[in-house]
Specification:
By secondary structure, the protein is mainly α. It is built from 11 helices and no strands. Its EC number is 3.6.1.8. Keywords: Hydrolase. This is Nucleoside triphosphate pyrophosphohydrolase.
Length: about 220
């Protein structure tokens, strides 16, 4: 009986493999998908990523499951495009193998006998492994994606700049109102630095405040 059960379990298709196979079929047989390039997909990738964020912060479990699937589809789509590259092809299996190797390297406390009993110690191992992988980088700012939203980008830059000696964010003058766009930029950057020092997420803080604004606007619109 147990042998039959095990055999039946082995016959169940791998959902991830089925998704990858579905994507490959779409890429090969859908006339729209055949013409799509990596660059063409970027707007969809950004949109799907933000829909995942919205599901995390404001949605249901069903919303999150669906949006994670849509984001996974973007990864599979990029991999299917890459598999057809004439000079340097790779597929989703190569992507997964590279990811697994990286995560094993960055978790020596899980896979290599190192010790980490606190989140801070985990970060020490992570950052050491990451630094070893990125030896060719010349600046702490190398590798920061420039397409990040401005507040998130500012928080990343401020965080990377810590310890370099650069004064990238001053203090917010109490009660002052920016008089120029440049002064507004200075004030925003200083606020981002405050957010980072407090362990806050500046991008999320503004998103959540905007949601309250949207609720207030809709409430006002519904009044007779």
């Amino acid at each position: 009986m147990s042998t039959e059960r095990e055999s039946a379990q082995h016959e169940v298709p791998d959902p991830l493999r089925a998704a990858a196979d579905t994507m490959r079929e779409v890429r090969e047989n859908c006339v729209w998908s055949q013409r799509i390039t990596h660059r063409d997909l970027v707007p969809y990738l950004i949109e799907e990523s933000h829909e995942v964020i919205d599901a995390v912060e404001n949605g249901t479990r069903a919303d999150l499951r669906e949006e994670l699937g849509d984001l996974l589809w973007q990864v599979l789509f990029h991999a299917a495009i890459a598999a057809q590259d004439p000079t340097d092809p790779f597929d989703i299996d190569d992507v997964a193998a590279t990811l697994t190797e990286k995560m094993v390297r960055r978790h020596p406390h899980v896979f290599a006998g190192e010790t980490a009993t606190t989140p801070e110690q985990v970060l020490v191992h992570w950052n050491a492994a990451k630094a070893a992988e990125k030896r060719t980088r010349r600046s702490v700012l190398d590798g920061i994606p420039r397409g990040m939203p401005a507040l998130a980008l500012a928080q990343k830059v401020v965080g990377r700049a810590t310890g370099t000696g650069a004064d990238v964010a001053g203090a917010v003058p109490a009660g002052s109102v920016p008089r120029t766009e440049a002064e507004l930029g200075d004030a925003l950057l200083a606020l981002v630095a405050v957010a980072r020092s407090q362990g806050w997420d500046a991008e999320r803080a503004l998103r959540e405040r905007l949601r309250r604004v949207e609720d207030e606007v809709r409430e006002a619109e519904s009044r007779p």
